[in-house]
Amino acid sequence: MNFTNLSVKVSVWLLVLLTMEASRAERLSEKLKTESPLTLAEDSRQHGDAVRGSILYTSPKLACTQCHATGGVDLAGPNLTRLGEQISDVDVVRAILTPSLSIRKGYESTRILTVDGEVLTGRIVSSKDESLTLQTATPGAPAITLKLADIEERFPSKQSAMPDNIVDQLKNRREFLDLARYVMQLTAMDSTGSPSSGTPPVTTPTAGQTLSPELQGVVLLNEFNCAACHRDDLPSHTTVAKHAPDLRWTAENVDPHHLLEFIAAPHVTKTGTLMPDVMTELSNEDRQLAAKQLTHYIVSLGERDFTRQDIDTDAAERGDKLFHSVGCVACHSPRDESGRETLPGDSVPLGRIPEKYSVASLASFLENPLQARPSERMPNMRLTHWEAIDLASYLCLDATNEWNYTFAVDLELAAQGQKRLHELRCVNCHTEQRLTPPNDPAPTDLLSLSEVNPERGCLSDARGTWPQFDTTSEQRDQMRAAISRPSKKLSDRDQIAVTLTAFRCLNCHRRDELGGIASDRDTYFQTTNPNLGPQGRIPPTLTQVGAKLKPTWLRQVLVSGRAIRPYMQTRMPQYHAENVAHLVDQFAAVDELPAISHGTFTDEKATRQVGAQLAGTDGLNCIACHTFQLKQSANMPAVDLTEMAARLQKDWFYHYMLDPQRLSPNTVMPTFWPQGQAMRDDILEGDANNQVEALWLYLLDGRQAATPRGLVQEPIRLLATEEAVMLRRAYPGIGKRGIGVGYPGGLNIAYDAEQMRLATIWKGVFADPAGVWRSQGHGVVRPLGDDLVEFAKGPELGKPQSPWIVDDGRPPHHQFRGYSLDHLRRPTFRYSLGEIHVSDYFVNELDATSSAPMLRRTITFVSDESEGQVTFRVATGKSIARTGERAFEVDDGLLIRLSDGHPIDLVASVPGQPSIEELRVSLTISKSPTVLTIQYIWGN
């Protein structure tokens, strides 16, 4: 039995157990519970920073705003600004540390078991004779209404909905004091002096409603383009009707065989198509002939033949990710791994894409949908050329080669097809180069929409000489309601609702009670930065957008697709001006906010300076979360401060700053003026309006605004004094198992514990750890100082029979065994290669000859068995020159001396790297210690 290995394993398990026990003992919540709540309350009041606490309060790791409102509406937890004198500082401390100790009346949790076996937990917000409403603590989840008959059992829970271990998400006691201080500030507020007191929330808690039947009917009349055949004498509106695809584009980009099938039987070929069947009176034989004639005519309009391309599976894989992230699934059904649509019933159908398009033709459409469909119900998603190819490759994955793609146009059939196009009145909806555009009004001898008999024709269930549309009974009822609507003009508010519904804007956005993301599509809206919470992935509300955005900016958003949220993966589409520009004026006419007074100043220059102070770390610390002049903050890339004044209306800015949750419930934006009272009462005498005005004047400078304090962070400098200093983190060229050591005298190393090698040495200041300390441990330590020397990757010790593995991974036969510290905290690193055990120790010295700074490295090798020859790689370089019997200079810089007793080999050309030389030492390892000493000396 190998007792050495057993000893190592036991030691490892003991270390694991001790670490687990230490982590339990070091929980912040347990530490704080040993202190008196009164002491914590007093320290929070005296030493806590409410501004820092506000950032913690809204951070995703705590997510306090998901359950506690500071304005607007009550959520799962109580509104903290309404507690007033009912809660003391000590109560605040206790509520944060032990939330289940005392639960406020009305906010007790109830657990409900439904007859279907579902278990729900939340706060009962209302109860009626036949139902109750439950507000769960799930972030962003709406209240749930349950029928009492569907409830099997309900019983109160003694556990608070607030997590018991929420304090353990904080780093230290100081953060707890900051958080408690901010909560104390919130609970101390009352409604006096609030500029927005008494005004209703701008956004309502309910969403997902749709248009009235009459307005939905107006949308459908546009979608089916009824005015192409009827005089439109219905209520006027500004939404452009949906026109059919351009036939010349179709000729070159749609497979002729698919086109033939579609014309012959549109509703069979593509379920849910808006294309009517206009050949219901023809026999099957005549129908097929007409379809053939029309196909030959349409294909004759093109200047090039339709061709197919092979599918690139890598591109298709990228396209899959695009399809399910950039916004396609807001309208179209998501797909599972087999390509099956998972939500076909509530989605815009795509039909048989692989049969209809080639990769090239579909990519052309996706890049510029307007060229084929000018009414833009399919918007421009601002795809790059390569993204369009990737997405087209994914959607065409199931393409087959069952058809012979050689399609020769028969000119006689094409001539007959042109006549058919007019006879069947296809020209009413379709355009091509030789036809009159369908934008011209329908002939005056046609029946007007208000005179249509809903019991006959397109709106009836009967079949006749009229076109047959694939409509549901609900759709027909809605169109009948629109036709019978007495009003001749839609209001601006109704016009907006009709346009947003027609263009499916409400699939992503919410406006008042309309629209919003469906729950079964919510997971497809993602962000690159989870720290921003739901606002980082959910498109912004359109409620009061006319009062929020300046008209010029709003037009740029609609027409140019201007975006300010690069972290949001769902893209804002780009529309043509004639289709959506009317929304700018209509939003402005409808949306308004309650009047609000502005702060006043006589010295604008001094006021801007105060605004810069408020934006920086010595004010409200806006810079901690917001981008500034395109430079992202350390915490999260919230919208750029220098674009705000160009985007936002001043009154909206005031309302939002004074009460952000009223305009945007559950935002991660902290409340700095709860109930109108300034948290920084030492700036501008605590006048909320004057502070907001100072910020506004500062932001008016845009890109020219003075840089606020805290944007440029000074480097953190770690220095070794009388003892060595160590920092275990990622270093350049090393993974997360880097171990940096700064030695007294200004010499430093970075050791790679993943590959058992010396990675870097340098002189001067040790390191700047800001990259890891300020980024939650995910960054890289930056070596400071100068004369940095990097060594080759791969383990230094190797056997002739198992050559070095030079890559970024862990070598298979080496194992790191940890380190120990001497009295000056200098480490001895330990690792093993098979039965060979290695200790590696560095000491800082001065060279006795030149007095230059020097690192002396002592490496000791011991084997459990006689191992024979091994090789140690000392250095690599473009040039290694011998300067003495056992001295070498690497790349005209670093001098290396080697101890006696071991053969040296200077390899002129490393395999795979012919221009690199390598210095090696051959060692004979036995059960007795073998020592190799290396001196690294910098020149003057």
Automatic annotation (TrEMBL):
<dbReference type="GO" id="GO:0046872">
    <property type="term" value="F:metal ion binding"/>
</dbReference>
<dbReference type="Pfam" id="PF20601">
    <property type="entry name" value="DUF6797"/>
</dbReference>
<keyword id="KW-0408">Iron</keyword>
<dbReference type="GO" id="GO:0020037">
    <property type="term" value="F:heme binding"/>
</dbReference>
<protein>
    <submittedName>
        <fullName>Cytochrome c</fullName>
    </submittedName>
</protein>
<dbReference type="Pfam" id="PF00034">
    <property type="entry name" value="Cytochrom_C"/>
</dbReference>
<dbReference type="InterPro" id="IPR046476">
    <property type="entry name" value="DUF6797"/>
</dbReference>
<feature type="domain" description="Cytochrome c">
    <location>
        <begin position="314"/>
        <end position="399"/>
    </location>
</feature>
<keyword id="KW-0349">Heme</keyword>
<keyword id="KW-0479">Metal-binding</keyword>
<dbReference type="InterPro" id="IPR036909">
    <property type="entry name" value="Cyt_c-like_dom_sf"/>
</dbReference>
<dbReference type="InterPro" id="IPR036280">
    <property type="entry name" value="Multihaem_cyt_sf"/>
</dbReference>
<dbReference type="InterPro" id="IPR009056">
    <property type="entry name" value="Cyt_c-like_dom"/>
</dbReference>
<dbReference type="GO" id="GO:0009055">
    <property type="term" value="F:electron transfer activity"/>
</dbReference>
<feature type="domain" description="Cytochrome c">
    <location>
        <begin position="48"/>
        <end position="187"/>
    </location>
</feature>
<feature type="domain" description="Cytochrome c">
    <location>
        <begin position="212"/>
        <end position="302"/>
    </location>
</feature>
